[in-house]
Amino acid sequence: MTLRRGIRWMVRHGLVRRTVQRQMRAGDLGSRLMIDPTTREDPFPYYDELRAQGRLVRTGLALISAHYDVCLEVLRSPNFGQMRLDRLPGILQLGRKLGGNPVLGPIEPPSMLAVDPPDHTRYRKLVTRAFSARVIATMRPRVEQIADELLDEITRSTSRGPAVDLVTRYASLLPATVIAEMLGAPVAMRRQFLDWGAGAALSLDIGLSYRDFRRSERDITALHRWMLEHFAVIRRAPRDDILSTLLAAHDQGDQLTLDELSSIAMLLLAAGFETTVNLLGNGAVLLMRHPDQLEVLRVQPQRWAGAVEEVLRYESPVQRTGRLALRDTEVAGHRLTAGAFIVVLLGGANRDPAVFPDPHRFDVARPEADQNLAFSSGIHYCIGAALARLEGEVGLRALFRRFPDLALTGTPHRSPTRVLRGYDAIPVRLSSRTQTVTSVPL
Ligand code: HEM
Description:
By secondary structure, the protein is an alpha+beta fold. The chain is 53% helix and 8% strand. The protein has a 5-stranded mixed sheet with strand order 1-2-8-5-3. The protein has a 3-stranded antiparallel sheet with strand order 4-12-9. A hairpin with a 4-residue loop joins strand 1 and strand 2 (63-65). The radius of gyration is 22 Å and the shape is globular. The termini are far apart. Protoporphyrin IX containing FE binds at residues 112-113, 124, 267-268, 271-272, 275-276, 279, 317-318, 321, 346, 374-376, 380, 382-384, 387-388.
């Protein structure tokens, strides 16, 4: 453990970890969310318990809500901003200074996810257009082609045995290929990006072990180094892609510092696959476990877009976010002082029976599924929502069209993360009819 990294870990994770462990022994509800393994595996009973206790529940670490209307209000309110480590109280600030420069992580400024206006507005303006619903709709044929090529490759390789890990062979490669092409990053490096992204994803959780913290810093640093080298390559031969546009905003337009440029580029790349892999993985497992719902889609293929909304609602790939009160304010009848922190349970809001009747039922024809908060709300609403929806629909539909009797051969393995919810391995057996099913109207 290097001294500075050790201090950084202690400030960000070690102290919280100790506090939360003590609170959990004392029966505190908030701490279960952070470290309890049962709650990580299946958080939904916990969300129900928390929701029954109130609209906004005060716990040892923070205020928490699993009520849809409270979550929506907080996300949309100008009285709340992003939680940033430079807003930590007194002694922790000192530790932060001693810990030296942190890596450019996804929840550290200048990440778009970690800043408020006016910086946030400036960053978003540079990339919003490339992710608009109109531009994304034009990408459908290419996403279909990528999905088909990956499925062809799986079909070819089944001569080596019918069992496949759906995550490594499909759910991760589809979004990694799409976002690499879109940004102008080399597709041949997609497995390396996925590996670095998995390390970066750990940093979204709090209370990490030192080992995980070290891995996340190592992988983010490696990605950052690669990105800086890649900027030099683009500088020599600019192209018509998002990274070239961002680089020009730094080099010519003077609109971004180098750290801002790197941070936006890394966030777009990693967010482009780290979450969508979970939409595809969660969706595939849900549909294999609910053959009646798959049958609905076979008979009514026009329901695929709605089915993706239901997957997003039922097993939200991002389970929670948080907001800090920027000034004294009031929420759900609670008076809050500036600095109060609220954990917004997106996955809990999405199972709120006040908005989603019979919320624990997976129903691809649910009429209100698109009200889900899986992509958050307000100014940080996911930039990649249209792209993720497209990849979810095209990816799942192509998968079940090619392999209509896709089946689990073992228990899918959950990823170790808490904020992100998905699987890191899904063992499946492919259909015996793989080559002949393209006419099935899925
Ligand atoms: C199923 C897939 C996805 C889910 C569930 C998801 C979810 C989210 C959520 C919940 C937020 C906001 C967090 C907050 O309010 O604090 C967010 C922000 C963001 N997402 Fe996604 N996302 C997905 C896919 C993507 C894709 C494909 C991209 C492509 C680049 C992307 C890029 C971003 C970016 C850049 C932000 C920051 C926006 C801002 O702070 O203004 N996401 N996403």
